[in-house]
Write a structure and sequence with these properties.
Length: 204
């Protein structure tokens, strides 16, 4: 594990934080938090953000989890995919993708709330939006450098499709949060990794 920390410090730190927060909220509230406990723990709710200016929820919501299976699935996914993407992107780019995915995970539901008022009574939490951001990041790399990353993306694609289908079928899972994280990861990676061609001046 010490070797994992040295090679993938950001991923290791993220996993450690979400586990520690889960243990803390489990002791203070319950290991299967209800909606009201999720609010106290920092979960995202568009009304609390807009009307009460609790902007910290845009970030803190990514770190709380509502049960053992929830934290296990997310931590395990982050352990596998996060390590790969941290290795591919490098420390700085990977950190930017993580932060962008966290924000877009909550910004997209917030934007939809502004448009039609939906989600006013919901509480959202979990780092799965960041995991979807990493999948979006991998898709951006695949788009930019098909021959290099296509095989890896094909390995991730079935799991991505399965989780998206589950997100659409299960009301308690935030489809908007997942899509938001995915879009953020894709966009930031595309911007950071798009080849930059220098224009050469030709003199006759």
């Amino acid at each position: 594990m010490s070797n994992f920390y040295k090679r993938y410090p950001v991923t290791f730190l993220l996993i450690a934080i979400v586990i520690l927060i889960y243990v803390y909220t489990g002791i203070v509230y319950d290991f299967d938090m209800n909606v009201y406990q999720g609010i106290e723990a920092g979960g995202f709710n568009p009304v609390l953000v807009t009307e009460f200016h609790q902007y910290y929820r845009l970030i803190t919501a990514n770190f709380i989890h509502f049960g053992l299976m929830h934290i296990f699935c997310n931590a395990y996914s982050l352990y596998n995919l996060g390590a790969v993407m941290e290795y591919i992107l490098g420390f700085q780019s990977y950190l930017k993708v993580i932060l962008a995915s966290m924000l877009t995970t909550t910004f997209l539901p917030l934007g939809v709330y502004f448009i039609n008022g939906s989600g006013a009574n919901t509480i959202m939490g979990g780092i799965s939006g960041v995991i979807f951001g990493l999948i979006g990041s991998l898709l951006a790399l695949t788009y930019l450098y098909r021959d290099v990353y296509m095989y890896l993306f094909k390995q991730v694609l079935p799991s991505f499709i399965l989780v998206m289908v589950i997100s659409m079928l299960v009301p308690s899972i935030s489809l908007l949060g997942h899509l938001g994280g995915f879009i953020g990861g894709f966009a930031v990676t595309y911007i950071l990794k798009k080849p930059k061609y220098k224009k050469e001046r030709i003199i006759n």
